[in-house]
Design brief:
mainly beta, 4 strands, 49% strand
Amino acid sequence: MVEKEDDSGIIQILNPSDVDILNAGDKVLVFLKRDDMKYVE
């Protein structure tokens, strides 16, 4: 999953297939286990 913040400060969690470009402030969520989610920055 990709967490993106738009210009108005609204955070969206998107599917990676829905994201064309990753920006410097974007966060990528990596599922290590089904119930364990971590940030990669």
